[in-house]
């Protein structure tokens, strides 16, 4: 009789740790943003952290670990324990561009595992408000009249606005002169001074400005914050290069934990708290996808970016 009571009790004790290990998350988590605090990406990372904390009943904090165009913080997450407790909130470029432009970073296209896409930032072409170019067609006509003489600036060689312009000019058969700067602010200063004909910028940099005119946005649909600005697709060019990204985990993170995180992301993305942050960050209506669609888009983007990067000088 005693033996019949003791053995089940021992089995229950042995099973208890395994059951406890299956609970996830059982403690606080951190989301690394590899860029400085205060930007649009940081705003959305913090909104996601707040939503996940509510759903999991655990603290979720955002840690800003910037440097090397995002490579430092991203590489730190890639090297962290693949347990789902250290995550990255990053743009796709950390896996599709940085492995090429910063080969010593240790990053590869498979360094992180996609969990959910949580943002998509459109790019835009800007000119002075008093520019004679009122449409994208006007710019195209000027560029075809004087190949290689129309100038535009971007926030750097191999930046997303630069690569977006390369994709568009290739589709349009145009030859424009690119001049790199250190940020959208510097680009727009030069546009307003008349030293640049146009600027390739992140759409959010145009928010609240009346001194510039947007000729087009690169996206599949008009942005709700700029309903009067057409897409390049509407102008006849079948290109929509955007900067997208979201939550990622170390590559070896178990499938069951990815599934938990993915489901929680979907719930957070539907909340008014996160959608309000998305509106402030000038997000399109469709900014969220699950892990599968996010991974497929990353793979497609990596292939395209590799081809683009082979065609430009990086030094």
TrEMBL record:
Annotated signal peptide: 1-20
Record keywords, A-Z: Signal
CDD domains associated with the record: PBP2_Bug_TTT (cd07012)
Top-level taxon: Bacteria
InterPro entries: BUG (IPR005064), Bug_dom1 (IPR042100)
Family: Belongs to the UPF0065 (bug) family.
Protein name per Swiss-Prot or TrEMBL: Tripartite tricarboxylate transporter substrate binding protein
Native source species: Falsiroseomonas algicola
Lineage of producing organism: Bacteria, Pseudomonadati, Pseudomonadota, Alphaproteobacteria, Acetobacterales
């Amino acid at each position: 009789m005693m033996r019949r009571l003791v053995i089940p009790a021992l089995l229950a004790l042995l099973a208890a740790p395994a059951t406890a290990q299956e609970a996830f998350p059982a403690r606080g988590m951190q989301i690394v943003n590899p860029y400085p605090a205060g930007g649009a990406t940081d705003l959305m990372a913090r909104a996601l952290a707040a939503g996940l904390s509510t759903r999991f009943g655990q603290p979720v904090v955002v840690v800003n670990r910037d440097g090397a165009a995002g490579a430092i913080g991203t590489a730190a997450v890639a090297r962290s324990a693949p347990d789902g407790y250290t995550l990255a909130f990053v743009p796709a470029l950390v896996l599709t561009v940085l492995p090429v432009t910063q080969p010593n970073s240790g990053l590869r296209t498979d360094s992180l595992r996609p969990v959910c896409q949580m943002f998509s930032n459109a790019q835009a072409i800007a000119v002075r408000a008093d520019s004679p170019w009122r449409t994208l067609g006007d710019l195209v006509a000027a560029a075809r009249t004087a190949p290689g003489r129309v100038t535009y600036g971007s926030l750097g060689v191999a930046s997303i606005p630069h690569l977006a312009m390369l994709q568009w000019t290739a589709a349009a058969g145009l030859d424009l002169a690119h001049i790199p700067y250190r940020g959208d602010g510097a680009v727009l200063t030069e546009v307003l001074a008349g030293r640049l004909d146009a600027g390739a910028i992140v759409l959010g940099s145009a928010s609240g400005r009346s001194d510039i005119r947007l000729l087009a946005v690169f996206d599949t649909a008009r942005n709700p914050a700029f309903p009067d600005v057409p897409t390049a697709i509407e102008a006849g060019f079948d290109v929509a290069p955007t900067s997208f990204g979201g939550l990622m985990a170390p590559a070896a993170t178990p499938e069951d934990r990815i599934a938990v995180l993915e489901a929680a992301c979907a719930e957070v993305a539907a909340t008014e708290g996160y959608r309000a942050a998305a509106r402030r960050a000038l997000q399109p209506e469709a900014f969220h996808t699950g892990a599968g669609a996010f991974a497929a888009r990353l793979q497609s983007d990596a292939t395209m970016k590799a081809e683009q990067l082979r065609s430009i000088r990086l030094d």
